[in-house]
Design a protein that fits this description.
- The chain is α+β, with helices and mostly antiparallel strands.
- It folds into 2 domains: 67-352, Beta-galactosidase, Chain A, domain 5; 366-592, no CATH class.
- It is built from 16 helices and 21 strands.
- The chain has helices at residues 3-23, 27-66, 69-76, 230-235, 335-342, 356-374, 380-394, 396-411, 413-422, 428-442, 450-469, 506-525, 532-548, 554-578, 581-592, 600-616, and strands spanning 89-93, 97-102, 108-117, 123-128, 133-140, 143-146, 153-154, 161-162, 168-177, 180-188, 194-202, 214-224, 238-243, 249-250, 257-260, 268-274, 278-297, 304-315, 321-332, 491-497, 501-504.
- Strands 5, 6, 7, 9, 10, 11, 12, 13, 14, 15, 16, 17, 18 and 19 form a 14-stranded antiparallel sheet that branches.
- Strand 2 (97-102) and strand 3 form a beta hairpin.
Length: 617
């Protein structure tokens, strides 16, 4: 790439930035537009909720009008008195969560996280509505009972229960009689994301069929989009589960994926319906068996990101009292929060920080440094900047060693060229042997420049995992980026470009430009000319980054931009003040005068060359 091409790219970038700056709306216009859109969305959501409740009420009235006692008895047997009633709601609430419970099915109808909003400033509801399933199924007198079709009663009545000051419990009962019932007990502690959920079968041994060995609990939910970037949210949403023995596992995060009892370990500790930054997890205080798990990607055209379903088997022994103690976690996917609630059960495993050494770097280095910086700095853009500088300073000895190794190879290039001219191409083994002898005599390791890169690679991949999964960056702004966990946009395009998107990310452009500059600088320092194809590929990488990272977290592009810029400055400083080619050459010439001990590898190489010569003769 010549200077004219580089200047062309710079001018295009400047035009785009200038156009964006001149045509962008004022802060007052942006705020007014956001306020108007937020009000419209809230009103739309409220109208939808009212319409849903109205339709549910009308449906209940219609059921009451059409079904007579005889038909209800035929359909529901001893539970017929619970079949046709009016749906009502009761709310469990503390400072963190607001949980709406319906008497229809006695189920959790919706969960709101009070301290968070969606990207468009709407209340953050984890899951809600009549389309979701939450209930038990079992047989009685030849009839299949689904508790979602029946109405539970509450001794507390249908008033809100505030758990802000003390722990409060809500009992929901599906009664066959006063001493025969199925009970859900919800207990919400103050200032907690954890909800105790106990299922109790009391006096049902003569009602539930004797052939039943398990009661089936069905949990299914549609999870709507909550974040700015649909692509990232879809990528980092998945159904997770923790076998009682073994590590946390997940169903495939894209497309439709389904697992059945044959594929799963018999004993499961918890199941989590996870989105990018929030999870609903059902945790057994013991273990439970899973009949099936299912995750379905709903596609770009749907407002629903995923549909998750779990069919859980609860062992039934026909006792007078059977109890199944469980818990729900409704909260953020914040590493230390999840560790607080479930360190012993690896609940933090829903955050994909990378496997092996990559996850280790994130858990024990990046997150810890991030937390320390958070205590003193409130701006996450500055935190990323300081984190980047700290990482580059720690790795600076490796950067120096890598440059020095490159410099040694560069100053030896004329001598290597002389070897190549002296020894014909058809004697490649002799060429290689002579080259290795030169390296050995001069004290140069041809792989010396690669080793530092190998050491830095785990950090590079670890941070690639960390930024899109970091809850701390969610909805945090910096400069023109409104959300560091999602893409930044300086221009919205009138169409969607495949692989690229419908916007232009400035941090991504800056990252690509610095990579282009570093590629050119690195090419000038190489010891020999690269193959034309390889050289073109090196210059194509920044262009590929421009496409790949346009939809990624802006915090990640910002980190790579700062890291590459810092590396350019480091390389320039090392070249100008620390490493002089003439001094390096003099050092290598002095090394040649020292006695050389042949390594085992060099001895084997010489023996192989001798054997090759003998065969030719």
């Amino acid at each position: 790439m010549d200077k004219n091409s580089i200047w062309g790219l710079v001018i295009i970038g400047a035009i785009l930035i200038g156009y964006t700056y001149l045509t962008k709306p004022s802060a007052e216009e942006v705020q007014a537009l956001k306020t108007r859109d937020s009000i419209a969305r809230v009103e739309e959501a409220h109208d939808l909720e009212l319409e849903t409740e109205k339709l549910a009420t009308q449906k209940t009235i219609e059921v009451e009008r059409q079904k007579d006692p005889a038909s209800l008895q035929e359909a529901f047997g001893v539970f017929s008195s619970s079949a046709a009633q009016k749906e009502e709601f009761i709310t469990l609430e503390n400072k963190l969560v607001k949980i709406k419970v319906s008497n229809k099915g006695g189920r959790i109808y919706s969960v709101e996280l009070k301290n968070y909003k969606t990207h468009d400033s709407l209340p953050l509801i984890l899951w809600e509505g009549d389309k979701n399933r939450f209930g038990m199924t079992f047989d009685t007198d030849g009839k299949s009972i689904d508790t979602q079709d029946l109405f539970f009663t509450s001794d507390a009545g249908f008033d809100n229960i505030d758990a802000s000051s003390s722990q409060k419990a809500l009992s929901m009962k599906l009664k066959a009689s006063d001493d025969q019932y199925l009970e859900y007990v919800y207990t919400l502690a103050p200032d907690s994301y954890m909800l105790d959920f106990d299922i109790k079968a009391i006096g049902l041994k003569d009602i539930i069929s004797r052939s039943e060995k398990n009661l089936t609990f069905n949990w299914q939910a549609d999870l709507y989009g909550k974040e700015k970037g649909r692509k990232n949210e879809d990528m980092y949403s998945a159904l997770y589960f923790k076998p009682n023995e073994g590590d946390v596992d997940e169903l495939n995060v894209s497309g439709e994926d389904e697992a059945s009892v044959e594929d799963l370990t018999p004993e499961i500790k918890w199941i989590a319906f996870k989105q990018q930054f929030f999870s609903s997890a059902l945790i057994s205080k013991n273990t439970f068996k899973v009949q099936s798990l299912k995750s379905v990607d709903m596609g770009k055209g749907s407002p629903i990101i995923k549909n998750y379903a779990a069919e859980i088997l609860l062992p039934y022994n026909g006792e007078v009292k059977e109890s199944y103690p469980m818990k729900f976690y409704f909260g953020p996917n914040k590493y230390k929060t999840l560790r607080k609630y479930g360190k012993d059960i690896q609940l933090e495993g829903v955050i994909n920080l990378g496997w092996g050494i990559f996850g280790w770097v994130n858990r024990y280095v990046v997150i810890e440094v991030f937390d320390i910086l958070e205590r003193f700095i409130g701006n996450y853009g500055l935190i990323i900047l300081i984190l980047t500088i700290l990482i580059k300073l720690v790795l600076s000895p490796l950067t120096y060693k890598s440059y020095l190794s490159t410099a040694k190879m560069r100053v030896l290039k004329p001598q290597i060229d002389e070897i190549n001219e002296r020894i014909p191409k058809d004697k490649s083994m002799e060429r290689q042997q002579a080259t290795m002898a030169l390296y050995k005599k001069a004290g140069v390791n041809p792989m010396g420049g690669c080793l530092p890169m190998v050491v830095q690679f785990p950090i590079l991949i670890a941070l690639f995992r960390f930024f899109p999964a970091s809850f701390e960056l969610r909805q945090e702004s910096f400069l023109w980026a409104t959300d560091l966990s999602s893409y930044d946009s300086i221009v919205t395009l009138p169409w969607d470009i495949p692989w690229y998107g419908d916007h232009i990310s400035l941090f991504c452009i800056l990252m690509a430009i610095t990579n282009l500059v570093y590629t050119k600088m690195n090419g000038q320092m190489q010891s020999s000319n690269q193959m034309p194809g390889m050289q073109a590929m090196m210059y194509m990488m920044p262009v590929m980054f421009l496409v790949w990272f346009n939809n990624y977290a802006s915090g990640l592009s910002y980190y790579y931009f700062i890291a590459t810029l810092f590396t350019i400055v480091q390389t320039w400083a090392i070249r100008k003040w620390m490493v002089d080619d003439d001094k390096v050459l003099a050092m290598l010439e002095a090394s040649k005068k020292k006695p050389v001990t042949k390594s085992k590898f060099q001895k084997r190489l010489e023996e192989a060359a001798k054997m090759a010569n003998k065969k030719k003769k």
